[in-house]
Amino acid sequence: LSLRESEERYRQLVELSPDAIMLHREGRIVFVNGAAMRLLGARAPAELLGLPLVSLVAPEYRDQVLARIRKISEENVSTPPMEQRLVRLDGTAVDVEAQGTPFIYQGQPAVQAVIRDISKRKEIERMKDEFVSTVSHELRTPLTSIQGSLGLIANGVMGAMPAGAKPLVDIAYKNCSRLVLLINDILDSEKIAAGKMVFTFKEQEIMPLLEHAIESNRAYGAQYQVRFEIEGGVPGAKVNVDHDRLIQVLTNLLSNAAKFSPKGGVVSIDVRRAGGRLRISVTDRGPGIPAEFRDRIFQKFSQADSSDRRAKGGTGLGLSISKAIVEKHGGALSFESEVGKGTTFTVELPEREAVPTAPAAPAGPSPRPRAIVCDDEPNVSEIIRHVLERDGFQVDLAASLGETRDLLRKHPSSLLTLDFILPDGNGVEYLRELRRDDRTKTLPVLLISPLAPSAREMAGDGMGPVEFLEKPIDLHRLSAAARGALRKSAGALEGAQS
Fold this sequence. Notes:
CATH class of the largest domain: Alpha Beta
CATH superfamily of the largest domain: Histidine kinase-like ATPase, C-terminal domain
Helix content: 40-55%
Number of strands: 19
Largest sheet: 5 strands, antiparallel
Structural class: alpha/beta
CATH architecture of the largest domain: 2-Layer Sandwich
Number of helices: 14
């Protein structure tokens, strides 16, 4: 066939394609098919021919597209499909998937771009994500009440149970906890995919943070008759991290290690320095990870296929979420495993230079602390009250900010738990009000809400002793946070008086 005949046959073939096809040479369009014109809103080829290709690419994708074009031209290789966004001639955007290949057109090198409109698929994905997010959020409030109530009953707060009732309550509590974890994982996965996960980075010592994670998971390990032991540490070493998110990562690694350890086993935690970074390793002596599963261990919903591993439960999202969180910290999450001997997961984080600080003065004896619980959900208030009273607090309940103000005027309090959205205002604005008043400037606050990450972002820094906890409430974490807030407040007060 002559060159002219070959080109004519090519035109006839590509006109039949439902995909948009363009040829470009030296960055300018030299050929388009009918599908490309329809996709980009052109009435005739002349409206597109000669245009720089990147002028049709959304600004946030231009660098990637140019790099792919250079690779095709210089290495004469095809590039895999890539999702991007194009800008039509009328200025509207369209989501597409594009693949480039080297091509000879009119006897000279060119690049062929095959482009598929994926806007409908993206809309379906958006609707699906919105549905999952809405349903998950709606489930959180009743689950908070169910999980909290079952936890209190299981821990004996309501008195002794009949012998046959305790196993049933334990089963209900464990399965409710699994459902809470599933919902939290789905919501976190959605936030990561949408780039909406909020991080608040602060410089802090790694060892107290690690000890906090271990203490929070000790009861979980006891369910599997597994102990957590720190084998090596680096006292004083600091990292710049989001406390809650790193605790989330460590909790995932510790709980996985406990689940897959033999009864009576030990999970070892080791922290070492390595080239300006800190390496936190969590090692179990379990069955190890099957070789065929290792390549996809960090993928969403990935679980090994063996019935033994599936019996351990889990969503298959934890490691995917943990990897994304660690990478947001400028770190890396990796693993080593040997079948029959166990697995080690390692978190690497950049180390911050330590700044010497004066030792804290020893805390003196204190009277029984008083706490206010402000939440417009009576069931939630009752659960928080039970936990705080068990920890030695004297508790007052408030269903609005107005009631909270009245209680604070009547008598000083040592702790305030606060919902984010209340009938007469929001928790963050009230937190700012508290910090402007000398009497409540250092009052420890626990802001408890399904929207805790958003509340934390809205509050920013400089809000005094405050911690943000998500609903459904983890009772152990609530208890630890309440005691920790009091310790921080006492330390700040002593520092101000010295």
